[in-house]
Amino acid sequence: MSMRRLLGLALALGIVSGGCVHSTGLVDPDDKLEPRSAYLYGRFGVDAQDKALAFGAHESIEFAFKCQDHSAFTIRFSNDTDLQVIQIRPSRCEFVQVVYTNADGLAMRRIPMEPGSLRNGLFLPGRAYYLGDFYGKASFRSTPIPFGARMHWRWGITDVQDNYELTTAAMRRNYWSLSRLPTENRMLGD
User: Fold this and answer.
1) CB within 10 Å: which end of the chain, N or C, has fewer?
2) pLDDT tens per residue, range 109-119
3) Pairing mode, if any, of strands 91-101 and 83-88?
4) Which alpha helices (DSSP H) does 31-181 contain, by range?
């Protein structure tokens, strides 16, 4: 086998085994309401430094979900905007894992969640669902060793709060097109 094919195979296996995590896009405050969609919101913040060589990216934490309609989505913790709203297709979904990523978005560790971690995972169209306020910390350091470096990552969720009323009021103020949607508290892990 040629060296080029071997390197290509190694790269492919690395991507499959580590796995890139694709975060769900956030709803912008000025986006129009899609009445056939469901919306999830909460605070998902992380204390992490931007990496200069990663174009402003940072280590992060993500919550991964899978749905009965075979869709999947993640909510990525942000180091600059903790209040987040995402738009999903209506379906019954399950909170399946917590994913710890490096600054490139590569999954470095996955923690499976117990079934039932999401109370009543049925998300109906034209509604907004509060998932909770979550804060974490993520860091990276590199230690030189002969012929390379030893890399150390640390992640953790440091604070979990049920601030349904306060976060719902903030969501309504900042996302005017969603302000009239009925909301429901679906605190994760509750």
Assistant:
1) N
2) 898 998 878 87
3) unpaired
4) 164-174
